[in-house]
Amino acid sequence: MNTLILVAVLLGLSTFAYQHARRKALRSVSGSVSDLHSLPSYHGAYVAIWCGLPALIVIALWVLLQTDLVERMVLSGIAEGTADMTAGQISLLLSDIRNLATGDITSRTPSPLVLEAAQRYAELQRLGFLLMTGAAVVLASGGLFFALKAIQPALRARPQVERIVRAILFIASVIAILTTVGIILSLMFESIRFFGQVNPFEFLFGLTWSPQTALRADQVGGSGAFGAVPVFAGTLLITLIAMIVAVPIGLMAAIYMAEYASPRTRALVKPALEILAGIPTVVYGFFAALTVGPLFRGLGESVGLPVASESALAAGLVMGVMIIPFVSSLSDDVINAVPQSLRDGSYALGATQSETIRQVVLPASLHGIVGAVLLAVSRAIGETMIVVMAAGLSANLTANPLEAVTTVTVQIVTLLVGDQEFDSAKTLAAFALGLVLFLATLVLNVIALRVVRKYREEYD
Amino acid sequence: MTDFTANQAVARKPDFSDAHLRKRYRAEARFRMYGIAAIFAALAMLAVLLGSIVTTGVSAFTQTEIALDVTLDSSQIDPAAIAKGNYRKIVRDAIRAQFPDVSGRRDLRNLYKIVSSGADFTLRRMVEADPSLIGTTRTVWFKSSADIDQLNKGAIPRDVPEADRRVNDDQIAWFDALSGDDRTRRSFNTTFFTSGDSREPEQAGVWGAVVGTALTLLVTLVLSFPVGVMAAVYLEEFAPKNRWTDLIEVNINNLAAVPSIVFGLLGLAVFLNFFGMPRSAPVVGGMVLALMTLPTVIIAGRAALQSVPPSIREAALGVGASPLQTVSHHVLPLAMPGILTGTIIGMARALGETAPLLMIGMVAFIVDIPRGFTDAATVLPVQVFLWADAPERAFVERTSAAIMVLLAFLIVMNLAAVLLRRKFERRW
């Protein structure tokens, strides 16, 4: 809260600096703007940036680093008391200290060690805040003072301000790179820890998946098996079912809309199909779990087939429906991009419309259709909510679509939702699965883009 | 050479017979039919999906209520300490007064169950609002319990054996007796729109999730819009064409296709574990969703900037504007409608997103309405997910109703995007 007030004060100061510098610049040329190198507002912005930016950077750094730094110092202060504790116990102790220091209730009556540490914690935090405030004030007023002094008619304020603005624009575009780097690093880091406990070979090729590790040594089946093949197989099965639904329907719909439909039908049907892509996946999940799953189960019972209520078929079918618009709208675009001269040539040879489509238009747009299907597969593999709600939880190595199977995303969710400790193989396995998922979708996307670019037939 | 001769051997004479032509025309009609069938199949699925949600959900907007004559005796409520009154006993006495001949612990317990367990709070709030009620007897409409509500709505069938349904024969008889006395009604379910989550379906509402959604999306918007616009401006207007900017571009396109759950893993590992931010907080949810929406905003922003014709830039540069002035005074304002449309669509996607929020702990059972960005909160799609898992029959209709609320928000946002596009669309 105090930090927020500080930021507000700084912003106010910067506004004042802007106004003041603007007036000073005008005064320095006694009102004739054309004698200034830069417009007065750039003088204002120049001083405001020098006043606000360095101080804001300091505050941001402090907010990011302070907790970690203070905790480290507190822990090193009570090092002899925590020497024989495990990492888990230390983190519990730390949360007690933190709660005490901020005046919350603690889980148990605090020991003198904790009390002392909490006092130190609060003290350090106060000290840190004071230091930070001091630094920010010094930077802000120093910046204000020197920048104001620099104001004179010949000051090249605009190029300087523009250089800073461009730097900020550049940083904004680097955030996208940082996100990717963050994803890769966090997944890699946790996966490496996981593979320190579980052999990567066993993870990729093992046939049993039961990630429940034992809390006590005498628990049954608690050894934890991390062979992910059943999970991968389940993902592929559900994806396959989804594709069997989505590709024919999506492709035929695209062909009809691009080649046969009148502009009016097209204007009605295309947005209607896009709605399918706009519905939140949790809605599909609810629909699959509540309507489609029981429906298939009932149908199966009536013909004497055992259908699991969380069958792969139900989840895959609903996922297929969700994916239809991805296939159809991309295919629609490439089919429309095929030049009319090809069709006219085919008609001139006496081909019917469907013969033209099958033998001329589709081969000419095959690259785009393959790309669309690959993107749809990557979408299906990464889809989470439908399978979390409608597919099974236990790993089951089967090709029977009527049984319940589990998928990579379901396992990630079940392993990570709820309380977790961060050094057990069970939690870390979720990150290893996440890494596999990320790499698989990345490869599919790259191949899809390559296919679209490389095999494009150049006409005209 | 051999290929050539083989082809020659296979090549047929064209078949101009009527039979062959008819066959080809039949194939044509068939192909056309496949197209129509595919479109109908897809639209039928959409209709079934929406239809099933609306039909199961619409009943959640009403709630069965039961009228009881409560005696607000001052022996039970001390006018000096209204909050401490024994409202539960008052409600129970009122129920017993309706059915004086019911006795026995088990029967009484079943009898009390026809009224919501939140009835005493309703009564207390009423008395707190108007203390002069103490000492009077009046008729008050209380919410029925969720099971009775379901019975009244026909979701619990009466003709199955008693052991197979959640209300027993006695409760049905009592409820029918009350109905006969005109002591039951179905009224608009305001609780559903004004309260937070609850274990009791009749007291559960979506308001907590709506507020959580608003807070989360606000964080998403505040982060992803400026950063996305700045990145788009840099990449489109200032970036030199080199390997570095190519990398950024490829990277953004790839990020747009990364599964959303991976962003959740990123949030869990970086925001929660590395930076120690609070679990279940809208601020963290908003940050994760912002990272996820950023590529959408950037791609839409670049497309909008591209559609501004170069003549605008040349004219501005020609009268002496600097490149940055050209962009900020002319190009960006002209591209803004397109950028806003893309942003709204990105926000609509973020609104429907569930998976990454599960990873950062926004699945907790939270009764209170969140008051700030760091309070524990949940969002609408996650609320749907939580209720879909709840075993009570009454949560099924509430899940569907929550979905309808969610879809209503989505429709409004998409409509805004469409209108914005219509109003400002410009052909140069």
Class computed from helices, strands and strand pairing of chain A: mainly alpha
The averaged pLDDT of chain B comes out at: 88
Tell me what the CATH architecture of the largest domain in chain B is: Orthogonal Bundle
Question: What is the rounded Rg of chain A?
Answer: 31 Å
Query: What fraction strand of chain B?
Result: 5-15%
Name the helix and strand elements of chain B from N-terminus to C-terminus, one letter apiece: HHEHHHEHHEHHHHHHHHHH
Name the CATH architecture of the largest domain in chain A.
Orthogonal Bundle
User: Can you identify the CATH class of the largest domain in chain B?
Assistant: Mainly Alpha
Q: Helical element count of chain A?
A: 16
Short description:
By secondary structure, chain A is mainly alpha-helical.
List keywords for this structure.
heterodimer; A: 460 residues; mainly alpha; MetI-like fold; two-stranded antiparallel sheet; 2 strands; 1% strand; flat; B: 428 residues; 3-stranded antiparallel β-sheet; 17 helices; extended
Architecture overview:
The complex is a heterodimer of chains A (460) and B (428). A two-stranded antiparallel sheet of chain A has the order 1-2. The radius of gyration of chain A is 31 Å and the shape is flat. Chain A folds into two domains: 154 residues, no CATH class; 230 residues, MetI-like fold. Chain A is 75% helix and 1% strand. Chain A is built from 16 helices and two strands. In chain B, strands 2-1-3 form a three-stranded antiparallel β-sheet. Chain B is extended, with a radius of gyration of 31 Å. The N terminus of chain B is likely disordered. The two termini of chain B are 56 Å apart. Chain B is mostly helical and 428 residues long. Classes of the chains: A mainly alpha (460), B mainly alpha (428). The interface between A and B is large, with 87 and 85 residues.
